[in-house]
Amino acid sequence: MATAALRLASQFPTTTTPAAGRRQRRTAATVRCGLADFIGGDFVRPDLGRFLEDVENHKALAIYPPHEGGYEGRYLTRLRYQGYRFLDLSARGLGDPETTLTKIHPVCPPHLGRQPIARWYFPPEVDYRLSLLPPNAKGLVVWIIEAKVLSKAELQFLALLPSLRPKVRVIAECGNWRKFVWKPLREIAGLPSSEEESQIGQPSQ
């Protein structure tokens, strides 16, 4: 990949107390920029096809987008082109993922100190969205932001959710990196891969 070098002259002299009549020396810094710094890393790295394959193979991925954001939208749009519908959730305030996503769960609205404490019951988020999918939809993608605050047990349930609901795919934003990368959520949660599970219990040759 082509790189360009930019020389930037510092406005501050190298010596703090220069002698009278002596020229002040200026330092020059070299900044190396790649092609991705000018037109965007998602255009340079043609990995959208590999991302779609990993979504279908692993069914649950942990993604690490850059801090500035924006890159994950290109991968989300490609999944939408494939026929997936989305359920966007934030890990903060999600509660127990198993109860919120797959069971009837209670929600207590704020009483503000005056109203009586009430409890409302909501249907399972995933099952309710699956029932509303149109016939031509390929499936439901549960996209969870700020998943880095979830415990290992909660991540393990999210990794196993596609096995409980075959039409569900899980994308969890588990952190940030300098470029858009992803890993199987099973690996992040400490679970064996599907291939390793299939080999468990088989007699060794």
From TrEMBL:
InterPro entries on file: NAD(P)H-quinone_OxRdtase_su_N
Name this protein carries in UniProt: NAD(P)H-quinone oxidoreductase subunit N, chloroplastic
One annotated GO molecular function: quinone binding
Gene Ontology CC annotations of this record: membrane
Region of interest (Disordered), ranges: 1-25
Keywords: Membrane, NAD, NADP, Plastoquinone, Quinone, Translocase
Signal peptide: none
Lineage, broadest ranks: Eukaryota, Viridiplantae, Streptophyta, Embryophyta, Tracheophyta
Source organism, top-level taxon: Eukaryota
